[in-house]
Every structure is written in structure tokens, then in C-alpha cells.
């Protein structure tokens, strides 16, 4: 019996904040599960590269405040895309 977490993405809210819904889902996936990046060759073997958030950043629904997705409409002070916390558009 593996732990389960059900999340609801508010698509309307996400779009109103300039977030691409697919980017939101990608951020959630990166937070919760390993994501395959690439393979590399080392010591005569092919090694698979996966990334995911450290355990301390994916312990529960409150972790959504620590993950961000880039906004197409909001910009930061440096002119770069604004980063929106997932907790603004995802609820457990």
C-alpha cells in the first residue's frame, strides 16, 4: 500500500496567471517522481540519468509552495518570466 496524494489543478486559475497547464503538470511530475533526462557512458557502461526533488522538498502537499512554474505573462524585476508557486493553482 503505497502512499497516495490526489491533486487538483485549477486550469482556469493557471491560465489566468499565464501558466501553461502542461508546465504545471511537468513541475508536479518532477516534484513527485524521477524524470528521465539522458544516458551517459561511464566506465564501459551506460548510466541512466534521472532527476527529482530532494526528499525534504516532496514530503507532502505543503511542498507545493516550494515548487514554481514560469508564467508567460508575469515578469520579474529582472525582466525574466515570473515564477508562480504551484500552490497558487494546485490543491491537495
TrEMBL record:
It holds the Pfam family ACR_tran. It comes from the Bacteria. InterPro entries: AcrB_DN_DC_subdom, Acrflvin-R. GO terms for cellular component: plasma membrane. GO terms for molecular function: xenobiotic transmembrane transporter activity. SUPFAM superfamilies: Multidrug efflux transporter AcrB TolC docking domain, DN and DC subdomains. PANTHER family: MULTIDRUG EFFLUX PUMP SUBUNIT ACRB-RELATED, PTHR32063. This is Efflux RND transporter permease subunit.
Amino acid at each position: 500500500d503505497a502512499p497516495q496524494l490526489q491533486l487538483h489543478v485549477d486550469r482556469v486559475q493557471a491560465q489566468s496567471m499565464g501558466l501553461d497547464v502542461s508546465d504545471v503538470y511537468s513541475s508536479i511530475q518532477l516534484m513527485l517522481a524521477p524524470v528521465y533526462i539522458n544516458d551517459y557512458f561511464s566506465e564501459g557502461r551506460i548510466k541512466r540519468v534521472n532527476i527529482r526533488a530532494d526528499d525534504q522538498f516532496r514530503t507532502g502537499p505543503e511542498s507545493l509552495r516550494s515548487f514554481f512554474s514560469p508564467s508567460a505573462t508575469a515578469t520579474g524585476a529582472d525582466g525574466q518570466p515570473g515564477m508562480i508557486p504551484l500552490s497558487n493553482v494546485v490543491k491537495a
